[in-house]
Amino acid sequence: MTLLLQGLALGVLTGGLYALLASGLSLYFGVMRVVMVAHPAFLFLAAYLTYTAHTAFGVDPFLALPVTVPLFFALGVAVQRLLVARLAPDNLAMMSVLLTFGLALTIEGLLGTFYTGSYRSVSMDYATRSLTVGGVHLPYDKIIAFSVAALTLAVLFAVLVKSRFGRALRATIQHREAARLVGIPTERVAGYGFGVGLATAAVGGAVLALITPFFPASHWVWIGKLMAVIVVGGLGSVVGAALAAVLLGVVEGVVLVTVDATWATMMFYVFLFLTLLVRPQGFFGGRLAHRF
Amino acid sequence: MSDPVSDPMSGPIAAEQVLALEGVVAGYGRAAPVLRGLSVTVRAGEVVCLVGPNGAGKSTALKVASGLLAPRSGRVMLAGRDVTGLTPQRLLALGLAHVLQGHSVFREMTVAENVRLGGYTVRDQARLDARIEVVKELFPVVAERWGSMAGLLSGGQQKQVEFARALMLEPSVVLLDEPSMGLDPRNTQVVFDQIDLMRRAGVAVLLVEQNARRALEMADVGCVLDLGRVHISGPARELAADPRLGRLYLGGQPAT
C-alpha cells in the first residue's frame, strides 16, 4: 500500500513536470499546426546553458531564468518568422516535422561539439534531500520540479485567458481568418505564440538540469513521451495536454513501483494507441480537435 | 498574369459609391485566377447581391474586398480611396466588416469574449461598452447567451454573434458571405431583417447568397457572376424575374 502511494505521489510530481514540458508542443500545434520535434532539443539546450551558468559562474539554475526565458522567447519568434512561416501552408504539418527534425539534429550536434558527449548534471544541496510523509518519500528535487511547473503553467494560463495577447492568440488558434478580420495581426501573434512555447522550454530545461543527468542526445527519449502526452490530451489543447501529462505521470509512477521500468515507459505508447483506437481526437481537447 | 479587362463600369467615383471593385483579377496560389476582371459597386444604404453558380468567385470577391486576399490586378476603392492590398486590420479601421461563410465564431470563447474581440483594435473602453449595449439590443440572443461558450450555440445564434462582432466598430460597409446558409426559415428571416436594418442605417451591404431568389427579393441591385465576371446585373427585382437567370443559374435550385 505504501508502495502504491509512493508510486502515486511520484507520479503526480513527475506528471506536473511532463505538463510543463508538453505545454510548448501544444502551443505550436494549436497556433500553427506545427509538429515541433525540436522542442526537447531546445529543452536540453536550456539545460546545458543552465549547467554553464552554474559551473562557470556559480549561478543557481532558477536564477538563470531571467536571462534564458527572454532569450528563448526571442529564439522562438526567430524560428517562426525565419523558418516555419516560409513553409507552404498545404503540407505544413508534415514539412514542419522535417524542418524541426533538422533543427533538433543541429542543436544536438552543437551541444556535442561544445560540451562533448559526456553526461552532465547540476546538483544543488537543497535538491538532494527528501521529505517523508507517512512513509512516502518525496525527493525535494521532484517537489521543486512540480512547483516550478505548476507556477509556470499558472502564469501561462493566466496570460492565455486574461491578457489581450492571450485573447488574440486563442482567437488565432480557433479561427484564423476571423481573427484577421477583427484586426488581429495573426502572423505576428503566431510568432509570439512560438516564442512563448520556446520560453516554456527554457524553464523546463532548468528543471531537467536539476533532476536528471543529460547528454547531447537525451532529447530523443523525450520526444516520444511528450508527443504521446499531447495526442492523448487532444492536439492543440494546452489544458488537455496538462491533464494527460498528470494522468500519464501517475500511470507511469504506479506501474514503475508495481511492475517494472520497461512497462512504465511503455505505458505512454499503450495510451497513445488506445487513444488513437478509441478517441482519436484526444481525451481532453475534443471540441477543438474536431476541427482538424 | 496580365489584366485582361479594362472595365467600362469603373468611371469616376461618385461620393456615395462606398465600395467599388474595379477590374479585379484574383486567385489562390499559382492556380488560374478565380476572378477575371470583376467590377462591382456598392453605394451607401444599398444592398448589392452577388449570385451565381459554385466557383463563380462570389466568396473570393468578398475576400479581395476585405483584404484577406490581395488581387493580382485591378483596384479596390473604399470611400473614393484606393485601398488595394491593405490588410484587413487597416480596412477595418476604415469602416469595413466581413462576416465569413459558415461558422466563424471563436468556438471556445464566450459570446462576451467574441463580441468584445470585434473591438480588438480599439482601446477606448467607454466606446466599446457603449457599442456592446447597442449590439445587445440589436441581437437579443447575444444578450441572453452573453456568458455561454459560443461553440455551444445553435447555428442561427452563432450567426447573430458573428453579426454582433462585425458591427462592434459601426462599419459603413458590410460584406456578408452566405449568411443564411444552414439556417432554418425563422433564423433566415432574422438574418434578412438584420440586413434590412443595416441598409436603413445607411450601411453599404455586399451580400453573397445561395438562396438567390430570396436574396434578390430584398436586395437593391443583383449581379450574376459567372467565371469570375459579372454576367448580368441590374435592379434586383427585375433580375429575379429575368428568365435568363432562371434558366442559367437557378434552374436546379428550390425556389423559396
Q: Main attributes?
A:
heterodimer, A: 292 residues, mainly alpha, two-stranded antiparallel sheet, 2 strands, 74% helix, disordered C terminus, B: 256 residues, alpha/beta, Rossmann fold, 2 domains, 6-stranded mixed β-sheet, 4-stranded antiparallel β-sheet, 10 helices, 35% helix
In short:
Chain A is mostly helical.
Describe the model.
The complex is a heterodimer of chains A (292) and B (256). Chain A is mainly alpha-helical and 292 residues long. Chain A has one domain (20-236). Chain A contains twelve helices and two strands. Chain A has helices at 2-32, 39-57, 65-82, 92-115, 140-162, 164-174, 176-181, 186-211, 219-233, 238-258, 261-278, 286-289, and strands spanning 130-133, 136-139. Chain A has a two-stranded antiparallel sheet with strand order 1-2. In chain A, helix 1 runs antiparallel to helix 10 (238-258). The longest helix of chain A has 31 residues, at 2-32. In chain B, the strands form two sheets. Chain B has a six-stranded mixed sheet, sandwiched between helices. Chain B contains ten helices and ten strands. Mean pLDDT of chain B is 87; it is low at 1-15 and 251-256. In chain B, a hairpin with a 2-residue loop joins strand 9 and strand 10. Chain B has 256 residues and is an alpha/beta fold. Chain B folds into two domains: 17-95 and 173-250, Rossmann fold (3-Layer(aba) Sandwich); 105-170, no CATH class. In chain B, helix 3 runs parallel beside helix 6. Chains A and B meet through helix 6 and helix 7 of A and helix 2 and helix 6 of B. Chain A: One of its GO terms (molecular function) is transmembrane transporter activity.
